[in-house]
# Entry
Amino acid sequence: MKQAVARAAIPHVVEGQVVGVGTGSTANFFIDELASLRQRISGAVASSEATRRRLEAHGIKVLDLNEVSRLPVYVDGADEINRSLQMIKGGGGALTREKIVAAVAEKVVCIADQSKLVAVLGRFPLPVEVIPMALGHVRRELARLGGKPVVRERCITDNGNLIIDLHGIEITDAAALESRINQIVGVVTNGLFARRPADVCLLASASGVQTLLAD
Ligand code: 5RP
# Structure
């Protein structure tokens, strides 16, 4: 299913342009599919060091985001997605760079299998990237929101920071919660992609790949 949905994203890639590339097992399938197109794109922007290495291993030119004036499309997976195409991301710890690339992209294409589609976000623990010296403060502030903050073990992000996974939080207003958590001093960002949701979700199931647009 991951390969099928990765292949379905290829028509969204704009020839002659740069493509933004996400992180994770589904994004890895997309990178493998993208390899056959490498002569027809001007390069890729990577949302993590792991993605950069995989792109380069395929001979795909990786550009710094600051060198790029236009990014027509960004393709990435998700940990959860709802019918408004708001997502939880960051299971792989790359949420901050993913959010930056998504902010620049004109179109965000989420590639996922059916298990990622949920009615209400929040069953998947919400990742929050934290500056190390603020860990205790952020953990206390997150606990006040009603969930259980758990520091992710053996995880240092590509930006040299830590991740707290917030378990058991009820997400009724994803955009409000995204902003609220980002207001905590010491938080770099959190894994809610509600203010900038996906534009298209390609969702794979045993019967094929369907295209969802925000409701
Ligand atoms: C990484 C992410 C990934 O997109 C998310 O974890 C989904 O990964 P996978 O495709 O392996 O299920 O946000 O930070």
User: Anything to note?
Assistant: Residues 22-26, 76-79, 89-95, 98 surround ribulose-5-phosphate (CB under 6 Å).
